Protein 1
Amino acid sequence: MEEKKEYVVEVEDLTVYYELEKETVKAVNGISFKLEKGRTLGFVGETGSGKTTTALSLLHLVPDPPGVIKSGKVNVCGHDMLALKPHQLTKVRGKDISMIFQDPMTSLDPVFPVVDQIMEAIMLHEDVNKSEAYQKAIKMLELVGIPEERAHEYPHQFSGGMKQRVVISIALACNPQVLIADEPTTALDVTIQAQVLDLMKNLRKQYGTSMIMITHDLGIIAEVCDEVAVIYAGSIVEKGTVREIFKHTRHPYTEGLFNSVPDVKNRGRELTPIPGLMPDPTNLPAGCAFAERCSYATDACKTNKPSEHREGDHVFFCSAYDDPGFAIKRKDS
Amino acid sequence: MGRYILKRILQLIPVVIVVSFLIFIVMDMASGDVVSALSGDMTLAEQELLRHQLGYDRGVLYRFWIYFKGLLHGNLGTSLVMGESVWKLYISRFPNTLVLAFASCVVCYALSLPLGIVSAIKQGSLVDNGCTVLALLGLSIPNFWLGLMLIIAFSLKLKWFPSMDFKGFSSIILPAFTIGTGMMAQLTRTTRSSMVDVIRQDYLRMLRAKGVPENTVITKHAFKNALIPIITIAGQQFAETLGGAVLTETVFTWPGVGRLTISAINSRDTVLATGCILLTTVFHCLVILLVDILYAYIDPRIKGQYVKGKRKGSGK
């Protein structure tokens, strides 16, 4: 590995709260990570763990009110996203960084033909006239496997998988350096999932786009990502390369995630779901957020913040490793 | 689409029959008839003769049958009181009403749409509440009172606008403002609630993520998606003002069809009253049809339904 790495996304100590009338939802609590050019970073975690909020912060799109970015720095392709004015932000969004949302059914404007929605992005960011934008939009659609005849149709005339292809072509229309994919396949059925993932992998190879893949599906992580960050209750609990995380799981929560995945080879094995629920984000515990559900937790875990440990690029936050002899008992599949 | 329009126009026929019949019955139930309204210096014998000539001795159904035969020939009849063709009387007043309806709606739309959009964006804020109060104020103030106050302020004191009759553009401002502000509340509330629904949609976030400026997100995308309920109400309001605004027309002595209709009813001029109300009904239905056609151009999903004809579960 060379010393000099080029980062397209750098996030430092990002904290985002949703301040409601009666309570404050602490969605993201001091997340830091970096994304190297051309690499794919996976965010994995339960629903409500703050993955989407983190992603929206990268675009400075957290709905405000009630969302407030309390602290932190977000640098995308050299732009300090949190300091940019609205008119400057519109120049970065879609051009340097763009995003694919979870539900393709509701991601497209129902009253405009799909080709118009791609052209809109192209004409905003590139100095082209209408017919050039049209040509490029058609090219993008063909790239994701939608023929020109269907370009003038409206979103309601497309199936879910086709809609997600359109969404992908909109997101990639201006060759962004960074693409955030927020559970891009969750709303699709399995065969379509595979097609969409393949498509995204190919496009990434073709354009060298760096990607952040948000998912709760460990299979997708293994399939497309280079690095993984496991998020729990708004904090990263474990971070490393896919190989490290899958082969040398360190954090008890990550262990729990793996144990909850059904195994086809060993169908007799009982699933071991993680007991309990994620802590209420309006009332996070003082110590480790996972302590309540962790089988290794000691009393100290409930009051003290977890300590940071490193093994090369593999980082994890768990006080149990203060004892050098500690090891988790992950069931091997 | 063509078939659909034809079908809707054919649906007007039963409407015309029922409406004309109802007006005839109601006018018959009202006390007095056109002869007693006309009889200034007539002798009783002359009055009886006139009643016989007009068919008042043969019962309401007979008179309706005579009138209806005329209708089938496209003849709206002759006003009993004024002696002129109903069509001519109506059409001479209609442009005035059309102009006033148009101007009132321009005032109403120009105020309601921005207020509704702003309240939706600033939901629950002071601005939102302010817009609601303003719209409710327009609804609550009686038109005739507002009209009179406007006349006192702008015609009598400031002498900016004339208070009476149709004298070019300046005379339309006060009555249009009076009617327009009266209709404002409904459209403002509709715009607000429709926009509030759309503003929460995911596709707006997707638009922002691809770098569309906020103003475009709201005015181009959100507004077009919110438009169906808005044009439904806006179209209805235009159709209603086409029937004439009786109170406002009276306050401003505006020579519109509203006043013509009222005077026909007061003088028990059944033929003129029926003709006026029938024509108003037809224009009303045509405006609603026009709005229905507009739906298809705004929302492609509705167009699909028209093209395919009947669809399971949908009414028309």
Protein 2
Amino acid sequence: MLDNMSDHEYRKFAARHIPARLFAAEDFARVRRALGRKVLFAQGDIAVAYGALLAGCRFFAGYPITPATETAEIMSRLLPRIGGSYIQMEDEIASIGAVIGASWSGAKAMTATSGPGFSLMQENIGYAAMTETPCVIVDVQRSGPSTGQPTEGAQGDIMQAKWGSHGDYELIALSPSTVQECLNLTIEAFNLAETYRVPVIVLTDGLIGHMREKIVLPEYDDINFVSRKTTAKAAAAYRPYDNDGTNIPEMANFGTGYRVYITGLTHKESGYPSTDSQADHHRLVLRLCNKIRDNVGKIGKVQRDYQNGSGDRTVGIISYGVTSRSVFQAVKELRQRGFAVDHLRIITNWPFPEAEVAELVSRCRRTVIPELNLGQMYHLVREVSSGANDLVPLWKTGGELHTPQEIIEGVTG
Amino acid sequence: MIIRFAGFGGQGIVLSSYILGQSAVFDGKKAIQNQAYGSESRGGECRGDVIISADDIYELEPDYQDVLVAMAQPAYEKFVPLLRREGTLMIDQDLIVTDHNIEPAGITRYSISATDIAFKKYGRKIMANMVMLGYLNTVLGLVGRNAMEDAISRNVPRGSAEVNLQAFADGVTLAQQELKKR
């Protein structure tokens, strides 16, 4: 039936039936057709957009910024064709605000930006964390602070992604290191956002965002679609923030017959503000944090390229994002030269995989941490490594990647 | 194989690199493509980089190139020192005066009149990049001809595929003649 509808007809149809039809095979097929052939040569920014559309994203609000603009561009072109909405906002503050609203209306919603825009979004990212709004924010990192170097990649927003808004909260951040992973992890980001009701940050960078590489689009059966847990309670019995024991409350999308009060103020289970009760605040914030902290094992993803050695010749490297590419080359060359090298690639930056890192660091004579910043993840590694080991931060800024040779020198030097 | 296309913005430099990268992927190889951004891609010295490999590509920003395709004097002067020793240089000979002092040792040079051919035969200098692409691909045997023709057809402006493919074929013929001579 859907096959014969024009884009315009489908749009009217979708307006009535989304979000219920976000994951129907027929609707997915429509998205797949809009994206073209299965194997593509595409930029990271485009892969992010494609991943979002395949995951069921039907709302994008954004403000163009180098090096993230291509994501907005492709969303503006494709969303109207598949029953979704694109809004060009006046700035990034409004963009994330619109995304939060769209999410409460039941849509899977996303925005994409870079450093300066990401900074502007921080207040509302805190609001999304406090109101437990599933949403995805793509930050294509560029050299900062401030407007810095717009076309140059960086990894300077790792700490900001977690600590950018005030107060105590947890969220999830993912770092792709290939264009294919930009697509895969954006799908994953939506699933995590829907599962845990948190903002999920996809931390790409100017290099991966603009680089073209092969991507293979997944089929319907390849994707595990996750949707927020919605309530089946009677309207009178429903309270928006009741804890059913999972720390993740059932959601009631706007317009589905439930009374839902949403506020960034500390709130009770009813959703109504409670601004002077220590107990209410403590219970709420602890739950916001524990729903992530208790599930680090389920959320956290790493790639281990281990020889599982220990002793004097064993060296560890911990990397993430685009930097991992140079590390893979360095590891290959180091092993040819007789070094025992264990490489831990961190895919989930937040929550930080403390146990994995501690295990690696504890049995390596030296651990090298290359980053495109002046040492941000280095702090986290140091925190979990009991201070006894030789930790070597390899810092670099200004838009150029570490060469494999620089990483080799960090290991052997 | 690390290939850099370089010239002025507006010569189709970035498009050439994109077509080469895409056709390599269509041909079953691994490839990445990077390009100049900002003002230089709109008139200044412009570049498009491609890496093609049978294996996974880990080194995304190599210091040196195996091949430089240069279509403007400033681009040649800026990038030829970054050509690997014994690398391959391809130039549009009517647009570039070479300078041995800045060229690495032992390079192999190919010179054609891509822009001149494009202008005289098609009345459009913009076709020079296709002549160059046909020439480059044939001399170095980078990707299958079908895959590249497919990529060209998909990426040139609507209605211009035929003339672009013809210009590409001219480059192929020139390369075949050159290879016979060497």
Protein 3
Amino acid sequence: MKIWIARILFAAAVLALWEWGSRIPLLGQLPIFDPFIVSTPSGVARQLVKLYGQSRLAMHVGYTLLATVLGLIAGLLTGFGAALLLANSTLMRRVLDPFIGTANAIPRIVLAPYLLIALGIGIEPRIVMAASFVFFIVYFNVMHGISTIDRARIDHVAVLGGGHRHEILDLQIPVALAWTMRAFPQSVAYAFVGTVFQEFVGGNSGLGSVMIYGLNELNAATVMGTIVLLAVLGLVLLAIGEFIGARALPWRAEIANA
Amino acid sequence: MASPRQPSGLTVAAIQIAIILAILALWQFGPIDEMLWSRPSLVFPRVAALWQGVEGLPPLSRQIGDTVLATFVGLAGGSALGFVLGVALAEFTTIRLTLAPFLAAANAVPRVAWVPTLTLLFGFGFITKIVMSGLIVFLVVFFNVLDAAVHAPPALLDGVRALGGSYWHRMRDVRIWSSIGAVIASLPNAIAFALVGVVFAESLNAESGLGALMFNAMQRGHPDDLIISALALGIIGLVLIAITRGLQRAFAHRLMLGDATPGGARP
């Protein structure tokens, strides 16, 4: 209870400083209090209402969410599939490991200009960018999961007369699913990051593009309002991601030690 | 994974070299959009020209230097601040619980969203790159250190309290040492994020730096700059991560770090 009071007081203090900070003598002259740069809570609220009234805000939020979800699904499927494929081909795995490691180490953001030019400013480049983040997360998690399957279990399958097909269906796929769910919250978060970044670099819709629009108009209220919306959306997505990650596949806890 | 036959190292290496040669051949001779991807034969003379500095651009060596320097300064500053605040908030529970939802909210914002405001505050120059890079690194290191410091061995903390130690002694003698491992474990990720932060800051028309070179390439009518800066950033990213992994391995046995969690997400 006391903590909640402290939180409300802290939030109130921050909002008050944000709204009236520029009126403090001397200290108020700092750029961080300048309403032209950081706007004010009342200014942000008014701007958000105005943008919502023009029906654009809901549309932009929708596009960001759509790209995030589609990128997430694409990344999950490709990462899952690639890991399963490479786990079952020693040759392919050893050949491609350095390439995948290299691709992972290169800042994913260098893809952004290429995606912009090749796929334009619609939703497709954002889906690809989001998927590129999720792919590596899922790939490394699933590979780790499959590579740490207890040798005894593999032998059990063989002893019971199962071939390689059974090993894949009865061991690898459940383990792969369990580890994919383990990585789900992180995947959701990064799909969101990738989407917003691609919108930022060049997008005709989505919250990232709203922010760029605000910047071009030198409208700090739009910029700060977008930050607030992104924080809310990010928290909601993370909460959903953690909820699904924890509840989906209830049997996974035994398998993934999660 | 039950295959008994291991392919020979020679076979693997031969296939890898063949793949690299195939990619290079496709890049040089293939039916690809030259305006977008350039060709190796065009790239090398352009690198030489950029190195000297052409069309009013600073020399490539300076662009690389700016990006790398900003990365390291951001890494150092962000790590230091993240470490200090992480240890402090681990000790002062009330402050930590009060601030927890606000920190979570700030962390949920995609980092790139801070760039416009920081650019308005600090301009298009070096300071913004350091602040952006430092901010990202801070968020990474802070949460890792906070987690490690909060979960410092309770027996040690009780021991300090029993011996009459104050919050300061708990921080200095227990929490700091629990957290150093967390900082070192998060170093490869932190340095990758530091580089990304610098490029984020440069994405809004900075004066100098590889990110600026990359994002401005098409406007300047030089698509080969795009692939040159992308490759340079890729190489720098690889080198930085390799260096930090080496440091990690050097310290791992002293600090008894476990295996890194799989699925290390890189930005």
